[in-house]
Design a protein that fits this description.
Layout lengths: L3 H13 L12 E2 L26 H12 E3 L3 E9 L6 E8 L8 E7 L5 E3 L3 E3 L6 H10 L4 E3 L6 E6 L4 H5 L1 H10 L4 E6 L9 H12 L3 H13 L9 H11 L4 H8 L2 H16 L7 E4 L2 E4 L4 H14 L17
Parallel strand pairs: 9-10
Antiparallel strand pairs: 3-4, 4-5, 5-6, 6-7, 8-10, 9-11, 11-12
Helix pairs in contact: 6-7, 6-9, 6-10, 7-8, 8-9
């Protein structure tokens, strides 16, 4: 899971379309060719292209279902699983299309490591029938930020954000929609201050830790207040701005500031940062859906499809949310 920045960027491109599929398969799948497809769009398979013992076509297909299965229009065929000169390393070739007449067919090429746990294109990504299981367990064990929704962690959505990040501010409406549309989910806010980019983010996170000790409601009210006053988080204005934001949620700013200055509070913020660092997450905002890293680059409807698909893969049935006023047009 290291080199996650490259993996996240590649995932974002794949979610937007097929234009980079020939460069690398990183991380999102589809369903088999629909029965209604008018014709098989792919070239014939040559049995001589399947000389590697591992991975099996079943494992590759399961990986692709995990990767692209949220998109019912995406179709593919495994064209080759070949030996390479590197012992135990296999080359996998997959043809991909959208199933429409005369649609463009593109090839995805990646390499599977001898242990069967990783795929390599221009980045290293988890591989297998359940490529997101390990990170799902890590998030269940260590993502301990303030949460909304269900108490159960079976469907766990973890948002990595920082309070001085403009894009993080923008995606809060999306997070509110997810909380509303998926009441079965536990939705966690995991603060990831990036002080090299956002110098006030650590102090804002320390205040947030202390506000959260009062209540979750106070925490999320404070978070929104900080997002609303981001422009005032300047070297000269940060302390006064954060104190004002604490006052808005009905708490004592002097007490919160004193709490934020303690080593215990700083350790709590650093523990959240370490969780992200350990899993290679080095940018915000990022959403982790049961271990599946999803950048906020797709439409809300696509994001919902990913959540539903990942839940189904993990044995959790969620009803398809009906559109409501806050999601229409997204």
């Amino acid at each position: 899971m290291k080199n996650m920045k490259s993996a996240v960027l590649l995932t974002a491109l794949l979610l937007q379309g097929f234009t980079v599929l020939a460069q690398a398969p990183s991380l999102q799948p589809s369903a088999p060719v629909p029965q209604s497809a008018p014709a098989d769009p792919f070239p014939p398979v040559n049995p001589k292209n399947f000389m590697a013992a591992t991975p099996t076509t079943q494992t590759v297909n399961s990986f692709l279902v995990a990767l692209w299965g949220y998109d019912p229009a995406r179709v593919w065929r495994i064209e080759a699983i070949q030996k390479t000169q590197a012992p135990g390393v296999s080359r996998v070739v997959v043809m991909v299309s959208d199933g429409t007449p005369n649609a463009t067919i593109q090839s995805v090429i990646f390499y599977v490591t001898p242990d069967g746990n990783h795929a390599i294109s221009n980045v290293v990504v988890p591989f297998g029938a359940q490529p997101y299981a390990d990170l799902r367990k890590v998030m269940q064990d260590r993502a301990d930020g303030p949460a909304r929704g269900a108490a159960d962690k079976s469907l766990l959505l973890v948002e990595f954000a920082n309070l001085q990040c403009p894009k993080c501010k923008e995606v809060q409406a999306t997070m509110d929609n997810l909380v509303q549309d998926f009441p079965q989910a536990r939705v966690v806010f995991q603060d990831l201050p990036l002080v090299d980019i956002n110098p006030a983010s650590f102090q804002a996170a320390a205040y947030a830790v202390c506000v959260a000790k009062q209540s979750n409601t106070a925490f999320f009210t404070y978070v929104q207040a900080v997002f609303d006053t981001q422009a005032a988080l300047t070297p000269q204005g940060t302390v006064q701005t954060l104190n004002n934001d604490v006052t808005k949620v009905g708490l004592d700013p002097a007490a919160i500031a004193s709490c934020a200055a303690t080593q215990a509070t700083k350790d709590a913020v650093n523990a959240s940062v370490k969780l992200a660092e350990d899993e290679g997450i080095d940018q915000t905002p990022i959403l982790v859906v049961n271990g599946r890293i999803v950048p906020f680059t797709s439409s809300y409807e696509t994001l919902k499809q990913i959540v539903i698909h990942q839940a189904e893969l993990d044995g959790i049935h969620v009803p398809v949310p009906a559109p409501h006023m806050t999601t229409l047009g997204k």
